[in-house]
Specification:
Elements lengths: L10 H6 L4 H9 L6 H22 L6 H12 L18 H10 L2 H6 L1 H24 L4 H12 L2 H6 L6 H20 L6 H16 L4 H19 L4 H30 L4 H4 L4 H10 L9 H16 L1 H18 L3 H8 L2 H11 L25 H17 L14 H27 L6 H12 L1 H13 L5 E3 L7 H4 L6 E2 L5 H8 L1 H4 L2 E5 L12 H7 L8 E7 L2 E6 L4
Parallel strand pairs: 1-2, 1-3
Antiparallel strand pairs: 3-5, 4-5
Helix pairs in contact: 3-7, 4-5, 5-7, 7-8, 7-10, 8-20, 8-21, 10-11, 10-12, 10-18, 11-12, 11-13, 12-13, 12-18, 12-19, 16-19, 17-20, 20-21
Length: 568
């Protein structure tokens, strides 16, 4: 960083990025960004169309985690033992709180449409915030459109946005945070710390309570606020106050999450080291020799790069690389470039997690090869989209060399250059889509994971559907942690007893005939270790006299459904 980078950004430098200098200055200075609502509505319509297909075909349930998120969101109010403890640990609560009002509708919950509503809203919010952020950074309209296309027509993002998975919510909170920071950094008025906390700090805090990558975004954004405050000529003390104002909501959110874990589970770090934590699952993978990125930087980078490539595509990666080069050449480390770098924080977090053995990802570059957890790489897509947008803008305006002053008007040739560049980019993205479609779903890692899991869980889906159509009352005993199937069964959770019900679950395991009418379990010993093991199947299968009062009414693969024998 040079001394010039620490000075406030001059007005002509902001305007020069867009040939229509005066218009660009008005966009940056105004509170509203023209086009934001249109972007939101168009992307929401696209997401709704994809979600409609996904719901009708049942693809919303291809990921087991999607089923689990829906169940958690509903069971807070509808379960045998309702309450805040039903939010559970490990997964932060914001996605479940967003799902909760929609999941109380039995139809929205059992069809997965509740997740599609939240996911589609997150997709549209992320796209609109991306457009807004780039406008604040004085990116040409062609660059903004290019970035939105990279983000919003990505098949992996579109699919995930039709489900109850948490990645779309994370992307939305990150982009809302960056958009608010871009507004603050380019405003001609010095916003107060309170305004910064509300408009940028709250979205960052929501990200912290969505996924743990949000913690990295909050940390990077705090550094951004401190640096930009100094660039704008604020004293060090004032700069620290502004940074503290921004990060205060995130700190409060994290402390609240620690307090919840302590109050409910007796350990503030239960989400990190408890029986259901990622570290507990990773211990199983480590014992099986699957945590091969642990301590291997080369394998970590190869594996994560393959994950990103499977989501974004080679074309997007090449365009983003070109955008990165142009941005570094033209913008250096000024506040606009630093805002783009904030979007890279989740990538750094996940790469470190793979290298330190805290995460696992399997694809064609991993050892062994496989298809698992690649959807986590979705958090890199917004950064790539921003780079494509910046690169497109700099290519259109031809400002990779610093101009002496801003141009006074947009030449006619500039319009044609913008349209031609955007058309070329659309063509490249279309070729990328066709390349994915030519070997569906094998070339899109997220879709590959979904299809593979759908095939693996075919027996579970069939058995749950059968139970839902034949259910005629009474309580159901089910270990939802091992057989995530409650939304597919489609009966209210207060009619089910599962592992999250604690003492009631244990009592039903001891004397099932006294508590339940139905049992849904594995009829053979599950080979899943630890918390993934079907406690119902393991307990009752090892003690057949406990289920003498039940008869088998349906079987699918290793799964069996029992019904209590009743007097005629």
């Amino acid at each position: 960083m040079t001394a010039s980078d620490l000075r406030p950004l001059p007005t002509h430098a902001v305007a020069a990025v867009t040939p229509a200098g005066k218009a660009a200055t008005r966009v940056v200075a105004s509170r509203a960004v023209p086009g934001t609502t249109i972007v939101f509505l168009l992307v929401a319509a696209l997401g709704a169309a994809v979600s409609t297909y996904s719901v009708r075909t049942g693809h919303v349930f291809d990921y087991n985690d999607s089923l689990s998120h829906l169940t958690i969101a509903r069971r807070v109010l509808d379960s045998a033992s309702p309450g805040s403890q039903q939010l559970g640990t490990v997964w932060p609560p914001v996605p479940h709180l967003l799902l909760m009002p929609w999941a109380q509708s039995l139809w929205l919950w059992s069809t997965g449409a509740a997740g599609a509503i939240v996911g589609t809203g997150s997709l549209a919010a992320a796209a609109a915030a991306l457009y807004r952020a780039l406008a604040r950074l004085s990116v040409h309209w062609a660059g903004r459109v290019a970035a939105v296309l990279v983000l919003a027509v990505n098949p992996s993002f579109l699919y995930l946005s039709s489900t109850a998975l948490t990645e779309p919510v994370l992307v939305a909170t990150a982009m809302l945070t960056i958009a608010a920071l871009a507004r603050w950094a380019t405003s001609t008025r010095h916003l107060s710390g309170g305004e910064l906390a509300v408009f940028a700090g709250l979205p960052a805090a929501a990200g912290c309570l969505t996924r743990y990558e949000g913690w990295a975004t909050a940390a990077a954004a705090t550094a951004y606020v401190l640096i930009v405050a100094l660039q704008r000529g604020n004293p060090l003390r004032r700069s620290v106050v502004l940074a503290g104002s921004f990060v205060a909501p995130s700190i409060a959110a994290i402390l609240a999450w620690l307090a919840y874990n302590f109050a409910m589970y007796g350990d503030p770090l239960d989400f990190a080291r408890g029986a259901y934590s990622a570290s507990a699952f990773n211990a199983v993978y480590r014992a099986e020799g699957l945590m091969t990125t642990d301590g291997s930087l080369g394998l970590t980078l190869d594996t994560y790069a393959a994950g990103v490539r499977g989501i974004a595509g080679v074309s997007t990666l090449l365009l983003a690389t070109l955008g990165l080069l142009l941005m570094c050449l033209r913008w250096g480390l000024d506040r606009r470039a630093l805002a783009v770098w904030v979007a890279a924080a989740p990538t750094a977090f996940l790469v470190y997690g793979l290298y330190s053995g805290q995460h696992i990802m399997m694809n064609e570059a991993s050892l062994p090869v496989g298809a698992f957890n690649n959807r986590q790489a979705l958090s890199t897509l917004p950064w790539l989209a921003m780079l494509v947008g910046v690169g497109t803008s700099l290519a259109v305006t031809q400002h990779w060399r610093r101009p002496a002053a801003a141009p006074k008007r947009l030449p006619t040739a500039g319009h044609w250059r913008a349209a031609g560049t955007l058309t070329l980019l659309i063509g490249v993205l279309t070729v990328q889509q066709l390349w994915w479609a030519a070997d569906y779903p094998g070339r899109a890692s997220v879709l590959t994971e979904a299809v593979n899991n759908r095939a693996t869980e075919a027996d579970r889906t069939a058995a749950a559907s059968w139970l839902g159509s034949h259910y005629d009352g009474g309580l159901l005993l089910l270990d939802e942690a091992a057989i995530p199937a409650s939304p597919i069964v489609g009966i209210p959770l207060r009619q089910q007893i599962n592992r999250s019900d604690g003492d009631l679950f244990r009592a039903a395991l001891t004397r099932p005939a006294e508590h339940v009418r139905w049992i849904f379990m594995h009829h053979t010993s599950s080979d899943q270790p630890g918390t993934q093991q079907d406690l119902v199947g393991a307990t009752l299968g090892a003690d057949p006299p406990r289920i003498q009062a039940f008869r088998e009414v349906h079987r699918a693969g290793s799964l069996v459904i029992l019904r209590r024998i009743e007097a005629p």
